[in-house]
Q: What sequence folds into this?
């Protein structure tokens, strides 16, 4: 897959099949759009193109969120998934306040048509683009009427009666329903993180943990609590359990992310980049009367996780 991180670096295409979107999470609904782009492009022997943005426009524009808007997916993970789906070209437009002033008409003419000459554009039913979100499917349809390109609107996908959307998935994760969120995403929710030094309490409990911080500073985190997880460590899949919260038993008051692997990692992890995937939420974080009581609960947590291990090793590959 050819990746371009600015409009200026593009090599113009003679023809293409294209889609546009922020695609936060690149969930099943988004994947339906991208799959149509890829399938159609292969049928017509044209290049498949995805235009996306980094950072997410809401981080730049929405005063409600400001820079605190938390994303489901890093740009690197998005690229990885798009490549697996068979996309030929991905343009990642650096989104800033200057670019946000670009009108929908300017974007269509100066970027979409000028560089990609699309034969067909697939767009989500609720997608908006351009200054003040003025561009949408109707804007593109005007160009279809002029004979510039064809437009196909891709409608929503539902999980039971709920429309799959980035906002709904975000709510699921914040409420701790990570298994349901992963189903709607179409990939196991998690993120890459750097292992950092902790205070060593896990070692004293004989449950050594790796403290970690997300590589993406705007990464959305699951609800505080204990999770059945797996980690990708030096290309090795390690199952374990993760605590998110404040360790109330010890009264420390510092927010931590820490993971205990059931199998000892192949080497010291401090400073290493790992990926932590959240399989299930086990329980709330609790304050125990003593470290002994906490250790007893950790043993129960581990037993539960091991009882669920077969489900994940059979159903989902560690990748």
A:
């Amino acid at each position: 897959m050819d990746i371009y991180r600015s409009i200026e670096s593009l090599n113009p295409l003679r023809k293409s099949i294209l889609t546009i979107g922020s695609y936060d999470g690149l969930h099943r609904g988004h994947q339906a759009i991208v799959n149509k782009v890829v399938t159609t492009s292969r049928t017509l022997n044209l290049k498949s193109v995805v235009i996306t943005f980094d950072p997410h426009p809401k981080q730049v524009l929405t005063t409600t969120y400001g820079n605190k808007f938390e994303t489901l997916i890093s740009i690197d993970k998005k690229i990885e998934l798009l490549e697996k789906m068979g996309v030929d070209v991905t343009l990642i437009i650096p989104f800033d306040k200057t670019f946000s002033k670009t009108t929908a008409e300017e974007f269509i003419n100066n970027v979409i048509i000028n560089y990609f000459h699309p034969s067909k554009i697939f767009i989500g039913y609720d997608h908006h683009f351009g200054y003040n979100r003025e561009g949408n499917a109707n804007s593109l349809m005007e160009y279809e009427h002029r004979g510039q390109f064809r437009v196909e609107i891709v409608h929503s996908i539902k999980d039971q009666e709920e429309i799959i959307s980035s906002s709904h998935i975000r709510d699921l994760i914040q409420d701790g329903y990570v298994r349901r969120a992963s189903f709607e995403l179409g990939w196991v929710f998690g993120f890459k993180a750097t292992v950092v030094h902790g205070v060593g309490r896990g070692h004293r409990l004989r449950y050594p943990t790796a403290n970690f911080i997300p590589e993406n500073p705007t990464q959305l985190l699951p609800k505080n609590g204990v999770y059945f997880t797996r980690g990708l460590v030096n290309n090795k899949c390690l199952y374990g359990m993760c605590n998110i919260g404040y360790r109330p038993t010890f009264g420390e008051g510092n927010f931590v992310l820490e993971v205990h692997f059931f199998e000892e990692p192949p080497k010291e992890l401090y400073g290493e980049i790992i990926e932590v995937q959240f399989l299930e939420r086990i329980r709330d974080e609790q304050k125990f009367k003593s470290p002994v009581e906490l250790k007893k609960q950790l043993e129960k947590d581990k037993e539960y996780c091991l009882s669920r291990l077969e489900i994940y090793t059979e159903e989902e590959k560690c990748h």
User: Anything to note?
Assistant: The mean pLDDT is 91. The two ends are 19 Å apart (CA to CA). The first strand starts at residue 2 and ends at 4.
